[in-house]
Amino acid sequence: MEKIFKEEYNNGQGVRELSALALAYIGDAVFEMLVRTRVLSWGNAPVNVLHKKARAIVNAKAQSKMYFRIEEYLNDDEKAVFRRGRNAKSHTIPKNADVIDYKHATGLEAVFGHLYLSGKMDRAIELFDKGMERK
Fold it and tell me: What are the required cofactors (predicted)?
């Protein structure tokens, strides 16, 4: 995967050209991967149990809460990406989520997508870890 974003995104240069929703699209997958990895680190369990634990974290309400836990740690660039994601018109209506939570979740996913495509997975993991901490 590293080869893909080095060739296609020129170490972050092409990432700025992507729409906020495109960043959120890939960020959703990155976030899901981080959550599943974390859930699995808690111990082996039947897949349905793992899935239930992951679903408790990968939903608009939980992602919105995570945003507020990491907001103070975001740099100016990450805050700008978050705002772009939050303010993007998605043309979909959330079924099981409050609209505000959904917008915050989209912004958070855009940040994770931006970091991933910019080759900054260490930063994505750092923010994820901060977001998983309970205050």
Answer: Mg(2+)
- Please report where in the chains the tokens 């907001």 appear, as a residue: 71
AA identity, residue 85 = G
CATH of the domain at 109: 1.10.1520.10
Question: Which residues have a catalytic role annotated?
Answer: 28
CA gap 100, 94 in Å, rounded: 10
Number of domains in the chain: 1
User: Among 72, 58, 61, 83, which residue's Cα sits nearest to residue 127?
Assistant: 72
Is 1 inside a domain boundary? no
Q: What percent of the chain has pLDDT over 70?
A: 90
Neighbours of 62 (CB within 10 A): 16
> Which residues contact residue 3 at a Cβ distance below 8 angstroms, ignoring those fewer than 6 apart?
none
DSSP 83: H
